[in-house]
Amino acid sequence: MKNNVQNWTVQQVSLWLKQEGFESYIPLFQKHEIDGFVLLSLTENDLRLQPLQINKLGDIKKLFYKIKQL
Predict the structure, then answer these.
(1) How many CA atoms are closer than 13 Å to the CA of 32, on its beta-carbon side?
(2) DSSP label at residue 7
(3) What is the dihedral of CA 58, 61, 63, 68, to 10 degrees?
(4) Between the N and C ends of the chain, which has fewer C-beta atoms within 10 Å?
(5) With 90 as the cut, is the pLDDT of residue 2 above it?
(6) For the segment 33-58, what is each residue's pLDDT rounded down to a tens digit?
(7) What gap in Å lies between CA 24 and CA 4, rounded to an integer?
(8) How far apart are CA 58 and CA 2, in angstroms?
């Protein structure tokens, strides 16, 4: 599934979030239409600040690490 991440749809990003244990963030990522291209461009600050504004430091660090692995 990691092939062509930049071409993932919002739905494929949602599936990846679920597989990685971040399913609680699926509605947030869908609301902001985060597809593969946007996912790969996210920074730790993007996750931390508005509009995503994830509040759990552990989730920010873990999610950013997983994104970098893609």
Answers:
(1) 17
(2) G
(3) -160
(4) N
(5) no
(6) 999 999 999 999 999 999 999 999 99
(7) 24
(8) 23
Residue 61: in which H helix or E strand, if any? helix 57-69
Q: Which residue has the tokens 């291209």?
A: 37
Our measurement of the distance from residue 41's CA atom to the centroid of its chain's CA atoms, rounded to an integer in Å, reads 10
CB 8 within 8 A of CB 36: yes
Nearest CA to 20 out of 69, 55, 54, 53 is that of 69
Cis peptide preceding 51, ω within 30 of 0: yes
* Cα–Cα distance measured from residue 56 to residue 70, given in angstroms and rounded to the nearest whole number: 22
Q: Which two tokens stand for residue 16?
A: 């990846």
- Tokens for 64, please give them: 């950013």
